[in-house]
Every structure is written in C-alpha cells, then in structure tokens.
C-alpha cells in the first residue's frame, strides 16, 4: 500500500514538474505547480516527516503559490489588441534558451550521476512512525525560541520589502 502511494505521488510530482517545464501558459504552470507541491508534501508525509509535509502544503501551496498567481495576474501587460482567448506566452531570447538548455542538461547529468552512484540501501533500523509535530513545537518554543523569533522578524521585513517594491510609484495612465 505504501509503495503504491509512493509511486502515485511521485508520478504526480514528476508529471506536474514536466508539465511546468513544457507549458508556455503561466497560469497552467502555476496550477501544475500546485499539484507538484501537493505531491512533494505527500511524499514528506509518507517518509515520516509529517510536520514538513504539512508545512510544505501550508506555506508553498497556501502562500507562495497564491502570491505567484497574484503576481502573474497583476503583471500582465495591458495589451488591448491581444486576443483574450490565446494563452499567455513567455518570450525568451534564443541566446537565453541555449544557455538555459545547456545549464539544465548539465545539472540533469550531474543529478543522474549522483543517483546512479548512490547507495540507497537502508542503514540501521527502520524509522519509528511517531509524529514529530509535538517534538518540533516544544523545541521551537523552548530551546530554539531566539532563532525562531529572528526568522519571524526576517520574514516580516521581507514581506514589508516586497510590498514596498510592489507599490506603483509612477502612476501614468
């Protein structure tokens, strides 16, 4: 049962990632990213990292993806002559496509080398399937409170900076 779930969620994440890679419609890519995040979150839960899986879904699906979709919708060009039925197209220079392809191919070959040279056998006992949420919560609120608060302030500053950058400072009709 776990193997079937693992292969199902892996297939979902990989198929969604490939769809993101090959589609040129940004909105479709954003929704495929939603499925990829869900697949990765489910894989985290299957691996016994339930807190990481829930965090993946809450932060990336609930926050980052919504911001990405709003960013896509708010940065559309006001081209009145464009056909609204045509999908959004990404215009990329040929030079950048070549460099992107070369860098992506090199990274893919590197990852293949890492995968084929790795030893994936289990070392030691199997992991206890006890939930980690309570342990992480206690650790964050006791011994790791200061780094937790610093991260919270840093995220708040990043949020304020992003809102400042998104302001329209030169409103010209």
Automatic annotation (TrEMBL):
EC number: 7.1.1.-
Catalytic activity: a quinone + NADH + 5 H(+)(in) = a quinol + NAD(+) + 4 H(+)(out)
UniProt-recorded name of the protein: NADH-quinone oxidoreductase subunit J
Signal sequence coordinates: none
Location, primary (coarse class): membrane
A Gene Ontology term for the protein's cellular component: plasma membrane
Enzyme category, top tier: translocase
InterPro entries in the record: NADH_UbQ/plastoQ_OxRdtase_su6, Nuo/plastoQ_OxRdtase_6_NuoJ
Lineage of source species: Bacteria, Pseudomonadati, Bacteroidota, Cytophagia, Cytophagales
Annotated function: NDH-1 shuttles electrons from NADH, via FMN and iron-sulfur (Fe-S) centers, to quinones in the respiratory chain. Couples the redox reaction to proton translocation (for every two electrons transferred, four hydrogen ions are translocated across the cytoplasmic membrane), and thus conserves the redox energy in a proton gradient.
Organism: Dyadobacter pollutisoli
Domain of life, per lineage: Bacteria
Record membrane topology: Multi-pass membrane protein
Keywords: Cell membrane, Membrane, NAD, Oxidoreductase, Quinone, Transmembrane, Transmembrane helix
TM stretches of this protein: 6-22, 27-47, 53-75, 96-116, 145-167
Gene Ontology MF annotations: NADH dehydrogenase (ubiquinone) activity; oxidoreductase activity; quinone binding
Compartment(s) of residence: Cell membrane
């Amino acid at each position: 049962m776990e193997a079937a779930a693992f292969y199902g969620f892996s297939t979902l994440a990989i198929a969604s990632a490939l769809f993101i890679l090959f589609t040129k419609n940004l909105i479709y890519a954003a929704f495929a990213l939603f499925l990829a995040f869900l697949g990765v979150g489910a894989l985290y839960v299957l691996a016994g990292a339930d807190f990481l899986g829930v965090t993946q879904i809450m932060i990336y699906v609930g926050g980052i993806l919504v911001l990405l979709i709003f960013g896509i919708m708010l940065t559309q060009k006001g081209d009145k002559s464009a056909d609204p039925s045509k999908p959004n197209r990404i215009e990329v220079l040929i030079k950048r496509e070549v460099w992107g392809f070369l860098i992506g191919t090199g990274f893919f070959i590197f990852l293949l080398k890492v995968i084929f040279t790795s030893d994936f056998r289990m070392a030691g006992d199997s992991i206890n399937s006890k939930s980690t949420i309570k342990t992480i919560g206690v650790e964050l609120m006791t011994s790791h409170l200061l780094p937790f608060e610093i991260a919270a302030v840093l995220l708040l500053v990043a949020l304020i900076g992003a809102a400042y950058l998104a302001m329209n400072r030169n409103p010209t009709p």
